[in-house]
Amino acid sequence: MTSKNDTPTIEELKRAVEEADALAEMKSNFLATMSHEIRTPMQTIYGLLELIGEEKPDANIMSMVEIAKTASSGLLEILDDVLDIAKMDADKMELDVFEVPVRLLVRGILEAMAVKVQNIHIGLGDDIEENVPFVVIGDPKRLRQIIMNLLGNAVKFTEKGSITAHVTTAVQNIDVPDGKIGLRFEIIDTGIGMSQEVCDKLFGSFTQADSSTSRKYGGTGLGLSISKKLVELMGGQIGVISAPGKGSTFWFEIPTEEVSTDTNTVELPHLDGISVIAVEDHPFGGKEIVNSLRSMGASVELCPTYAEGLELIKRRPFDVGVIDQGLPDGLGLDLIREIMELRPFTGLLMYTVRDDVGMQHTLQSLGVTYLAKPASRAGLGEAVKNAASKAARISVDGSKRLLVAEDTEGVREVLGRQLEKIGVDYDFAHDGAQALEMMERGNYGLLITDLHMPEIDGYGVVKALRDAEDSAAEGHFPIIVLTADVQMAQREAYLSHGFDECLLKPVSLGQFKRLLMRWGLMEESDIKETPAQTGQTETKNAGESGNASPAIDLDALRTQMGALDEGTVEMMGMFIDMTTPLIKKAQQAQADEQYYDLMEAGHSLKGAAYSASCITLGHLAERLQDDAEKSIPSQALVDDIGREFERVKMEIKALKPD
């Protein structure tokens, strides 16, 4: 009922708003329900099509299966769009806040789109201005969705010419708050263009530029509508500039903020000791994966091809495989299936720019994580961490006893205490000759060997064992090199000498645990819990009061030994007793100009110092070893080592309770 002048009352307006809200809610619920109800049987259909394909039918049937799978994937994508619309209408769409590497985002999407234009000869390129930050704050998944929608639209309406993704900080339509920056993304094509009338209604739901009954261009018209709503959720604006026959420029602008590449806005996961194989052919993308995961503590091997990745996974186990779908010599999905056969305990992650709903369903059925590029550093790290934790551990037949060949007493002491804490059966060999003897008469599941040892060094040990395997046609025995030489950590270096993996000194408990689990000497359930307390040793390093760095890296020592308790302090006292003769040996060898003895002393001191987290002393000993190998007099260096050793002794004394 209205008033006499037909003006609605306040109550009527409120009721009308409530009815409109209820209708919108009903529509959103209906769309969400229908999307879910259709998706369920479609996923069953897709799964059955995959199973038919796995039966290796003849070429004619396989062709029909692939066509049906493509159609199923297309329908699943439409359902996702409908679900997004429902979420937005119901105000249930929430944006994530992560770090977004802008250049990797744009170039990765262009890489994915290149597959769609390879047969129609359209040039794809990017134009990212120099002042655009490398990393900004945003939702990488939704930004990727917007750019993919705009690029997909450009590809659909461009038969020849080029499509360019332009990114600039010169925004024209939004106000940027203080302390933030604006980014303008433009997708510029040389396609058919549109009239202003079409442009004005283009971002409405279910709107098509080509609305004739005999439509030449497919699509639902949802992509641009979703993009508009997402941009507005980000506080930005979207639009298009076009004219018939003149091409189109779709643009959107958003406010954001720059992130320094030296800082993190979120806490990154700890990946200490996790071994990762990354199969990624794009140089920029591969570098990003390696740098990101190594910064969180993982060890990463990068392979650019299917063949190299498969060869390496045959050679040694990894905790996690990060695999791209589009490889130059095969599909990542096929590689994943091969890895699952060869190494069923490896956690797997598909990290790709390919936005294929059907492939995501396939990965889900295989128990493999799907992650769209580019993820934030935290997102990639969490995915790797989860994949490592979900990896199924297999029971390994044979010995679970470890043999460690190490000639330096101080290193043996540290390694022994670590292995006792994690509960592994082990033996020590004091040199390479003893290691070979023990291998002949003992039953071991793994050998870890130092490189530089008297009589027979690590190179001699691995050569002797590999020669014996070849002559007897025996299976491959795993041998790990233990070294402080970072060059040996390169895959080409350790594999070329016959080793299967490299363990860098100092070795943390986490690295040891992961290594032994990878090679089947222990399972997660075998790990003994170590005390969380740090004892009464929260003492300031002697070097903290001045400009010099601490003689002992206490954080590294805690990580290495599990706790800074009485046992660790006792071990550090033994380190002094065992290292004093090495210092004297170096001083005497320098005085007598006996460079071989000087090199031996430098090597032993380096290993012992790194193992005890005396990093500066280790660096000095490493320089001494290098100089002695070249017969360079090193009196000043020996003097520096003596002074640094005194600093170490003072800090160890400060650790001991009164």
- CATH 4th-level superfamily of the largest domain: Histidine kinase-like ATPase, C-terminal domain
Q: Name the CATH architecture of the largest domain.
A: 2-Layer Sandwich
- Strand runs, count: 19
Unreliable spans are 209-218, 527-547
Structure overview:
Helix content is 50%, strand content 14%. By secondary structure, it is α/β, with parallel strands linked by helices. The protein has five domains: 12-89, Helix Hairpins (Orthogonal Bundle); 98-208 and 219-256, Histidine kinase-like ATPase, C-terminal domain (Heat Shock Protein 90); 275-390, 3-Layer(aba) Sandwich (Rossmann fold); 402-526, Rossmann fold; 542-655, HPT domain (Four Helix Bundle (Hemerythrin (Met), subunit A)), CATH 1.20.120. Mean pLDDT is 79; it is low at 209-218 and 527-547.
Helices and strands, with pairings:
Elements: H1 10-54, H2 59-89, E1 98-101, H3 102-117, E2 123-128, E3 135-138, H4 140-156, E4 162-168, E5 181-189, H5 196-201, H6 222-233, E6 237-242, E7 248-256, E8 275-279, H7 283-295, E9 299-303, H8 306-315, E10 320-323, E11 326-327, E12 330-331, H9 332-342, E13 347-352, H10 357-366, E14 369-372, H11 377-390, E15 402-405, H12 409-422, E16 426-429, H13 432-441, E17 446-450, H14 458-472, E18 479-483, H15 491-496, E19 501-504, H16 509-518, H17 554-561, H18 566-592, H19 595-611, H20 615-629, H21 635-655
Parallel strand pairs: 2-4, 8-9, 8-10, 10-13, 13-14, 15-16, 15-17, 17-18, 18-19
Antiparallel strand pairs: 1-3, 4-5, 5-7, 6-7, 11-12
Helix pairs in contact: 1-2, 1-10, 2-6, 3-4, 4-6, 8-9, 12-18, 12-19, 13-14, 18-19, 18-21, 19-20, 20-21
